[in-house]
Amino acid sequence: MPKFMNKDKIGMENELRSEYDLSKLRVRRVGPGRKTFGGVNIRLEPDVAEMFPDSEAVNEALRFLIRITKENVVSEK
After folding, report:
1. What is the pLDDT of residues 47-56, one digit of tens each?
2. Domain boundaries, the chain
3. Please, what is the Cα angle at 45 between 43 and 51, to 5 degrees?
4. Long-range own/partner contacts, residues 49-55 (CB < 8 A, 24 or more apart)
5. Alpha carbon of 74 to those of 34, 60, 62, 63: distances in Å?
């Protein structure tokens, strides 16, 4: 058995610094109802989401679409 597993609960509590206040810790919710921190969540339909491996790929595709749209608007004038 590893050394750290032999410690009792009191021993673990005594190792924390006094400035740490664990009573204010909260468990973050998982799923669409969770709070966001500085970002916008957009939910993609499953058929669209399967085309992109990650959020960076989605952003890259949208930036490309924005650039093409802007170029078409400028050339039509």
Report:
1. 999 999 998 9
2. 3-30+44-76
3. 105
4. none
5. 41, 21, 18, 17
Q: What is the DSSP letter of 30?
A: -
- Three-state secondary-structure class, residue 55: helix
User: CA separation (Å) from 39 to 6, 12, 42, 54?
Assistant: 43, 36, 10, 16
The predicted-structure confidence for 27-41, as pLDDT tens digits, reads as follows 766 666 666 666 777
Nearest alpha-carbon partner for 52 in 40, 60, 41: 60
What are residue 35's phi and psi, to 5 degrees? -75, 150
Six token digits for residue 52: 């992109």
How far apart (Å, rounded) are the C-alpha atoms in residues 3 and 49? Answer: 45
Q: Against a cut of 0.70, is the pTM above it?
A: no
